[in-house]
Structures
1.
Amino acid sequence: MIGIGEYRVGSFPMMTIGLGSCIGLTLYDDSLKVGAMVHIMLPESAGRTDRPGKYADTAVPTIIKELNAMGCKNRSLVAKMAGGAAMFEYFGANLNIGERNAIKVRALLEEHHIHIAKEDVGGKVGRSVTFLPANNGKFSIRRADGTTAEL
Amino acid sequence: MKLTSVQSDAIQELGNIGAAHAATTLSQMLGSTVEMSVPAIKAIDIAELGSYMGEESAAMVAFELQGDIPHGGYIVFYISRESAIRLTNTMLGLTDMNRAMNEMDESALLEVGNIMVSAFLDATAELLGFIMLPSPPALSIDMAHAAMSSLISQMPEEIDEILLFSTELVCEEHKIDSDIIMLPEPTTLAKIVELMENMMKGI
């Protein structure tokens, strides 16, 4: 179970629950069957380094670096992401953190030449994600009403 | 900020007074007795929020704390989805538990949240002489963790650990279980602690 601001790298099953405005991002290398998952809370770290998984601008380079160390090439990595919702309408006006998170993650992935295969982002809905690197990088989403979807 | 036991006691007392007023209004709306718990104070690392609030469906009516401190944190009326349906059924004279929630439920929940949180904050303002006004309410009926983490992301001061004060309000007759949860940001918390300490010293 990956909490807010945490990440894992490897081939074991990974899960994160209750994404609201946060983003659940996975990178997966099909040739090595390894991947990484991170639960990103905010777009910008503003120089903070103690919790790299918490911010998009530190999380993306951190998991790429760890995957590179395991032998993954950026061009063989495929990204998927979910979350980035606006759970409360009223507060959404000038503080759409979910949307800002998603925009930041997309820009960073592009910078590192990593393709986003699929995403399920935005809306007013919470999501939980299960990621199985050993099982072809299977990425499943569960919503509060019990419906599931595979990206 | 770390609280001493005296400071925790002070905040519990404040929660007690606020929640007692909120419980009275809920009791009047339901026409039934409402019991309240001793307020709990929890310090939770954001990475561990999942062990406190998970995937369960809940209705949350959230208010930003405004007034003397403009972005003072949040206060939330939290009620599990099942209890929320029992609550609106009781208010609207319905009995079907296995129904989808609609706009009528949403406006009823917003209204209940509004009345209870206003009662809570009126009582604390009177006690402390420190005004915390609720913003207009916002409602989420979804995964509890998704809604709560979104509120924490919006806190003006960036934090890795949240302090959360919650008081449980239970109506046995209608099997309704709800909580009032306050997430003060550090400036608000420091102010509340200071005022409560002064009061207890008799200043």
Note: Strands of chain B lie at 35-36, 40-45, 57-67, 73-80, 132-134, 138-143, 161-171, 176-184.
2.
Amino acid sequence: MTLAINILLWLTVGTLAFIATIRGRTLLNNGARAGLLEFLLLLPRIGIGVVGSGFVAEALPNEWVAPWLGPESGFAGVLIAAIGGALTPGGPVVGFSIGAAALKSGAGAPQVIAYSTAWALYAIHRLLIWEVPMMPARIVWLRAIVSLPLPFIAAALAMLLGRP
Amino acid sequence: MAGAASATVYIRDGREHFLSVLFGDVTLFAEMLPKVLAGCLIGAFVTLLLPREMVARWVGHESGFTGLLIAAFFGFLLPGGPITIYPVAGAFLIIGADAGAVVAFIVSWTLIGYTRALVWELPFFGLEFVIWRIVEALPLPIIAGLLARITVRAGFRYRENMK
């Protein structure tokens, strides 16, 4: 499975690079350089986040996470997770590390899904720094309001489908 | 935070446990690196190759349910962070896309955009969990777009009644 995804991804990279080459060498060089640069910039942040979240998961006492956010916590756990997600500040490293740490230390999958969905939709800093300056206020509020039920729908679907 | 947590594990559970946790996470991280790199490269190339004006034209006014689907699809397709996504959403509005399509676009980018999933989510959660989460998120942009349209329409009706 992992191998298949890898092959698929690199085939996509190859196709895109090929199209870029046809359109001109500079385009190919620019794309490759931009992609590599971003990768190198991200590397340390993701590395610290992944290893760090592993240790946070180990350090957190399981007996504390499980009753609040475990698979048995049901809708209350989903609600707590969604509120927690909405209040989590910071970029992707923070949100995903916390989610991964919670999952490793015994939180239920639907609860973690509610957390990361709420965090992705609401991350306060993103709303304020990016969305408000760049979009009409009307649209920002509209999007925030219609997004309210989404973490719960995602968690409900997760409960229905069950873990693979 | 990472430092404090690793120190806690080291002191509480000893050196051996510390090393096994470290090794497990570093392996997970290393396995994901080719995918992260591929995600970065795909993102960079799509940004260069896809003309944004054309994208915006496809989500024009009165696009109906198809417009929502197209908007959600572009949210999935377009790479990049907030710096690239919100200007595109703004362009949608200027060109005449309705609020529902714009909402579907933004929600889709946040929840199922592949660059975010590849670059950020995958190293943390692993492949199975990410695919599973994305499957569950698939209907959400459409639901959000429809809700936005209903809200806008209700708002209009309220204003009409006030006159």
Note: Chain B touches chain A through 75 residues (CB under 8 Å).
3.
Amino acid sequence: MGLLRAEAVTVRFGTVVALDAVSLEVNPGELVGLVGPNGAGKSVLLDVLSGLLRPESGRVYLEDKDITPAPAFWRPWHGLTRTFQEGRSFDSLPVELNVAAAACVRGGGFLSDALSLPWSMRSNDESLRRARSALELVDGAHLWGSPMAELKGGDRRRVELARAICSRPRALLLDEPGAGLEADALDLPRLLLRLRDELGMGVLLVEHDPALVFGVCDFVYALDTGTVVASGLPDDVRAHPEVRRSYLGVA
Amino acid sequence: MRILLLGLVAGSIYSLSAVALVLVYRATGILNFSQGAVGMLATFTFIFTAAHHPTVLAVVFGLVVAAALGAVLGGLTGLLGEHRLEATVLTLGALGLLQALAQVIFGGHPVALATNLFPTGALRLGGALIGTDEVIAAVLALVLCGAVIALVARTPLGLVARAVASRPQVVASLGLDERPVLLISWVVASVLAAAAGLCLLTVQPAPDTVSLTLTVIESFAAALVGRLVSLPGALIGGLLIGLISQAAELGVGVPGAGEAGVFGAMIILLTVLPPRPVRGAQGAAAAL
Amino acid sequence: MSTLSLSLPDERLRRVLSGPTLWALLAVAAVILPAALGPYWAFVIGQAAVVSIIVLSLTLLTGFAGQISLAQSAFVGAGAYTCAQLALRLGWNMFEALPVAVAVGFFLGVLVGIPALRLRGIYLAISTLGLAVVADRLVFQLPQLGGLNGLSLTRPRGPVDLTSNLAMAYACLALLLILLLTLWRLRDGRTGWWLQAIRDDERAAEIAGVDVALYKLLVFGYSGAAAALGGALLGYLSLHLNPLDFNALSSVSYLALVVVVGRRSLAGALAGGALWVVIPQVAEGISRSASQALPIALPLLLVVGVFFTSGRFKLREALRLGTA
């Protein structure tokens, strides 16, 4: 009974098979790594898990509930969020609103906001509270009030991370959170361990940096050209001949 | 039958302006909202000049006006470089500006043509009457389309134009400057738009500035058949849109039904045949 | 569509015009001027208020949510003609017809929003322009809607007597105020955050839990409703509906206006309404082509403005360097 489970997910783009019956599981309080060369299908898998892509076949389960048909915007409200490899943010909103927008607090809509009805105001306040808490968790509290344009790469990712955890998801998908950043821009190992230990999240970490993945993860999947070539404890996967050839050889 | 003939005549003219629209879009990624307005200004220049001067002179003058406007637009949008959306908004502004200028210069009422551009007369085809001038205009429009298609496909200039359209980075890395090609595209497209406007006089001898300006919508719908990048597609699209427009207008009988038909076709085409993104311009469908 | 940015007017206007003193001054002016300047100017002020309402419909749609629309003229006309038809066929007065017109505007807005879910940027622009043309050429010229002669409207006598220009101007200003307040609250609340998120990055907004499709439909709906409100008031203000007032090209003017005054700025919308009535008044003093002053000035400002987007591209730089 896992937290997040992909079962035999297949994705085709025309004649190209991006994912071939891929199965994967993340348990609560577990850091799961997903490694593989470029083009292996890692981001495609994240797209399927987060609802941005419908698989041709296969299913996705969140706490044993089949969420395969659920739209992308439904998932954060039920405990599943993600970040993007290229780092996405709402550039015209200040940091705190970037995060608060994803707080997933049940509350008002168009009319109740326009009329400033009490439950709308309350839900907005709660969203901002959650945003502050999320920023603190990623060591970003000092960014409150800044416009996004002033932020450097590491801090932008920090804000995106805060946005992803603002709704206190149980499952978090991270797509190469360190991509394009300098080595110490974001203290990823510490943040990841905090998410796992303090918040009890199940995290699926797609990463290119082998040191990070094999150093910090509890379980690792290795993906190559759409299939899982190895899975298991980090040391076992690292030693696997397929993995050494296709991934570590190029890394 | 008359619907068919009129549809083909109007359609050929739409083909011409669609080809012009595609020429610019392929090369620059910009949708020229003001193309109809340029054609309109050229046509009105012709009408007013022809009232007091030889017809040939009036035609030349009109085409020159169009070429000049095309060059200005090409230059202005070129200054905006890669900001294609801003450039498209610029053409939107140009649409409004040219339209308002035309109202000031030429007055707001429809103007009747003093002399005819093409020989008049009537032909009987398949049991229906059609004006000789309309047929000549249609044939001319189609010939011009064919000429442009052949030019792009066969000549060295056309080769560079195609290269600029599909692989601009390659063109740049070869040390070739694409700007003359872009400018030529703008000028040629504007002249074609002017020609289309002049041909349209056979169908609509007393045009008003607004309806000519808004032909850009028919041109766009027609160009959609070629996904905004195919010249032969634009040609076919023009004929198709012409037929739909006439069928709707004459069939339903209510004025304005033609526009509704074109609009319906446009929406269907946008859904079924989304435009091909060019040079970083956005595609039509949702990216999710 | 998030790249259309004339943020220089945005930033400057916002800084200058967001102070409470300015709003207080405006409020005082709004109360005093119509009465002080006489019925002609009360009419003009009413016009400015109505245009501000129409601009606000675009502020909501284009400024907040980043959706481009050239169909506002269709919504404006729909609001006006709904009221006229209700008056003609059912004898309803303004207070009864106005809510219906607003509802019709909302419904039409949502309808336009549906294809907008799949279209972006320039394709949405030209589709909405096509719609405006259909409304202009087909719908508003139907004989049932008065054809080219148009329709008339009368101002109500009860429960509130709005027959004088002064009273009507105050009514328009009051509705403008209500709309301003609601948009202000909207922008600062979660709906505003979500609309701006949609504007900035739709994919990321989806991932953040925003039902992008629903909110796009809603924002089109409310935008249509606001534009229809403007149209209805326009009808009751000028007392006669002419299809020429709702022509497709006026949509281009409205969009140009909202982009020029700062499409995210609420105060800018007021400036837009003022510009719309002031430019012809000034032009009338200068030459007889006053009627074209606005259609010329607005696109011209738009074209010039496109070159002055701060942080993106500076015309001066380009001239110095000789290339883009």
Note: The longest strand of chain C covers residues 151-152.
